[in-house]
UniProtKB/TrEMBL annotation:
Keywords: Apoplast, Disulfide bond, Glycoprotein, Manganese, Metal-binding, Secreted, Signal. GO terms for molecular function: manganese ion binding. The keyword Metal-binding applies. Oxalate binds at N101, N111, H116, E121. This is Germin-like protein. It comes from Gossypium davidsonii (Davidson's cotton). Its main location: secreted. It comes from the Eukaryota. GO terms for cellular component: apoplast. Belongs to the germin family. The lineage of its organism: Eukaryota, Viridiplantae, Streptophyta, Embryophyta, Tracheophyta.
Length: 152
């Protein structure tokens, strides 16, 4: 009788597993619970960015950034300068997973090789001519010479 009980136990376990498999997965991020989450820069950062400012303290200035209006100082070893437009200077971007940078290049300037794990980069040339490119994880090189108005 012990063999029969063991067989029934294993059969019941298999049926339970097969019954649970078709249940839907809830592994996606839930819909946002609020329209925006302006960063409270005086609080410490958490896994998903800074905590939100109370809605009563949010102003129009939290959604405004004018840091790209000035050219950067390119008198350095790379002959380039990066002006970041991220949550630290533009609190309205908090928890959105986006940022934007302005990069100024002097003639012959370079942007040192870098990577963006789980992120993307797009470049637009406003003035001049610029060689841009990237290397894939399979070591394939893609590049293009851009002029004003081009994006890569």
């Amino acid at each position: 009788m012990s063999a029969m009980a063991s067989l029934l136990f294993h059969l019941l376990c298999c049926l339970t597993v097969f019954w649970l498999l078709p249940l839907p997965s809830h592994s996606a991020d839930p819909d946002p619970l609020q329209d925006f989450c302006v960063a409270n820069l005086s609080a410490s950062i958490s896994v998903n960015g800074f905590p939100c400012k109370p809605a009563s303290e949010v102003t129009s200035d939290d959604f405004f950034f004018d840091g790209f209006t000035q050219e950067g100082n390119t008198t350095n070893a790379f002959a380039s300068f990066l002006t970041p437009g991220n949550v630290l200077s533009f609190p309205g971007l908090n928890t959105l997973g986006i940022s934007m940078n302005r990069v100024d290049f002097a003639p012959g300037g370079i942007n040192p090789p870098h990577s963006h794990p789980r992120a993307s980069e797009v470049g637009v040339v406003i003035e001049g001519k610029l060689l841009v490119g990237f290397v894939t994880t399979n070591n394939v090189y893609y590049s293009k010479v851009l002029t004003a108005g081009h994006m890569f």
